[in-house]
Amino acid sequence: MSYKSGRNRRVPGHFPVDLFAQADAFRKQAEGDQEFNKTLETLVALRPAIAALAQETYDAWDEDNTDVYAGGGICHLIADEIADALWEAGIPARTISSNFEQHVYILAQLATGVYEVDVHHSLYETGGGFCWKKLPDVKFYPEDVTISQLSHDPEDPDYIEDEP
């Protein structure tokens, strides 16, 4: 099974997760011994930390820095930060590009299934395609982090990719 992050750009000053730990988790998952022992309560308890990561990413967003942002938004950067934080908390997670809108969110595997975790872009940016503008003076709160169960099976093949 594949759990590869959709990471392609980073906010300056942010550091990636322990890649060796993530690689070990990939190996365990591929060998079938990945434990999905985290619960929905664990994920809900992380909402304040997730909101803080979104705030940090939003606050660092300099629309004039075309080398980093290229006129695009920051949903993918927020999603990357959330996925990293979930991995650090022992929750397998990856970023997903929506098929319905220009947006990136997270899939997380818990003992009780697959969940979508998101801080929706409409809270902090406006636009479309690859032309987004920062909404002014946004403050993120734990309630801004949405968690939706997509499947009761943590290894549901509709959401988890098999290795080719």
Question: Outline of this structure?
Answer:
The protein has 164 residues and is of the alpha+beta class.
Explain how this protein is built.
The chain is an alpha+beta fold. It has one domain (about 35-150). The protein has helices at about 20-30, 40-45, 45-60, 65-70, 75-90; strands at about 95, 105-110, 115-120, 125-130, 130-135, 145-150. The strands form two sheets. A four-stranded antiparallel beta sheet has the order 1-2-3-6. Strands 4-5 form a two-stranded antiparallel sheet. Strand 4 (about 125-130) and strand 5 form a beta hairpin. It is globular and about 45 Å long. It starts with 18 loop residues before the first helix and ends in a 13-residue tail after the last strand. Mean pLDDT is about 80; it is low at about 1-20.
Which percent range describes the beta-strand content?
Answer: 15-25%
The coarse silhouette is globular
The overall pLDDT average reads: 79
Largest sheet, spatial ordering of strands: 1-2-3-6
- The proportion of residues forming helix, as a percent range, comes to 25-40%
Overall number of strands: 6
**Structural class by SSE content:** alpha+beta
Low-confidence stretches: 1-19
Count up the helices.
5
Give helix and strand order, one letter per element, not per position: HHHHHEEEEEE
Number of domains: 1
Q: Largest sheet, if any?
A: 4 strands, antiparallel
Q: What gap, in angstroms, lies between the N and C termini?
A: 9 Å
> What is the gyration radius calculated from CA atoms?
16 Å
